[in-house]
Amino acid sequence: MLKIFFTFFKIGLFTFGGGYAMIPLIHFYVVDKYKWLGEKEFVDIIAIAESTPGPIAINSATYIGYKKYGVKGSISATIGVVLPSLIIIILISAFLMQFKENQWVEYAFLGIRIGVSVLILNAGIRIYKKTDKNILSYVLMLFGLTMVMFDLISIVFVILIGGVVGIVFSLIMKNKEVHKDA
Amino acid sequence: MLSLLFKLFYTFLKIGLFTFGGGYAMIPLITEEVFNNSWVASTDILIDFIAIAESTPGPFAVNIATFIGYEQAGIIGAVAATLGVMVPSFVIILLIAKAFSKFSTNIYVRGFLNGVRPVVPGIILSVGIMFVLKYVFNIENFHFRDFNIEIGSLVIFVVIFALSRFWKKAHPVYLVAIAGILGILFFGVM
């Protein structure tokens, strides 16, 4: 139990840049070093962590902790992965105000804001490349883009509408298949 | 105070519940929620948070929840927001692990995810485009009258964008650092 807590604490402490950057490190500890999970089980868990809502890091920590030690295991893994962030960010926030007074820091942030805009743009492009290329996909993507850009409906609704359209579409496809078979 | 803590918890619970596909997918929702609650005065502060969350260890989502929670209500606020972003994951994953092992083959689940998946890049792209318009071209809310471009901003944008395209394995931290150095050079030194 303590071991699973400290393992995920280390994983949280040593990954920069969020969930996807964390997967290789999780693999190293969980599959290679401690052999808590087999290769196939690990791949399945990551696939589920990616397709369920929420941060991938927390999803996979919860799942791996549960597989190993039940609900208690999932709590200790999740707290382990979150704790380093919580401590580090609170420390940074406490000192940030003093830094921000500094003129040079302000200049640096003028550049950094542009850098972050590029990172967000790139994340959009990266995820776009991974999605299916068919008419429904393009329509839904354009829908998401315009709704948010012109602030027409809230993002929660945009996502829900996408999901409902997806369900309706796959039910129609299934129906067609059934008819074809008959 | 108690109602603020509840609001932080509930808001980040909503953000956790509607994020599909990891950290960056969370940025549009955070932007929207944080402005609806007027928790930050301007996008400037929010984007600075994003830069710091990206350059510090740990899951991006947790970093940003901690940040906003701490800014609003100190350490308890940070804990409330972080718990909020964790709870949906926790509950959903436990349900799947315990009772719903056929989760990924269920037709409703698959259909829902197939519909959500293409919407996500659209949402992220729109926020990315809005940030670029604002920080590179000074265009906010599509008010093109205020169009005003600084050479420094444009150069930083082009350099960072080109770097990120050609140096594919570059860690975001390096790009943030280079952008910061260029910012000092163009806005401070020159």
What can you see in these coordinates?
The complex is a heterodimer of chains A (182) and B (190). Chain A is built from 7 helices and no strands. Chain A is mainly α and 182 residues long. In chain A, helix 1 (2-14) crosses helix 4 (56-100), helix 3 packs across helix 4 (56-100) and helix 6 packs antiparallel against helix 7. Chain A starts with a helix and ends with a helix. The model of chain A has no long low-confidence stretch (mean pLDDT 88). Chain B is mostly helical and 190 residues long. Chain B has 2 domains: 2-139, no CATH class; 150-190. Chain B has 7 helices and no strands. Chain B has helices spanning 2-17, 23-36, 43-55, 60-99, 107-137, 151-166, 172-189. In chain B, helix 3 (43-55) crosses helix 4 (60-99). Chain B is globular, with a radius of gyration of 19 Å. The chains are: A mainly alpha (182), B mainly alpha (190). At the A-B interface, helix 1, helix 2, helix 3, helix 4 and helix 5 of A face helix 1, helix 2, helix 3, helix 4 and helix 5 of B.
3D shape of chain B: globular
- Please give the alpha-carbon distance between the first and last residues of chain A: 54 Å
Number of strands of chain A: 0
Mean pLDDT of chain A: 88
Tell me the radius of gyration of chain A.
21 Å
How much helicity do the residues of chain B have? over 70%
Shape of chain A: flat
Largest sheet of chain A: none
SSE ordering of chain B: HHHHHHH
> If you compute it from the alpha carbons, what radius of gyration of chain B comes out, rounded to the nearest whole angstrom?
19 Å
Distance between the termini of chain B: 46 Å
Counting structural domains of chain A, the number is 2
How many domain units of chain B? 2
Derived from helix and strand composition plus strand pairing, the structural class of chain A reads mainly alpha
Find the biggest chain interface: A-B, 95 and 103 residues
Low-confidence stretches of chain A: none
- Describe the main β-sheet of chain B briefly: none
Strand segment tally of chain B: 0
**What's the helix count of chain B?**
7
Beta-sheet strand percentage of chain A? Answer: under 5%
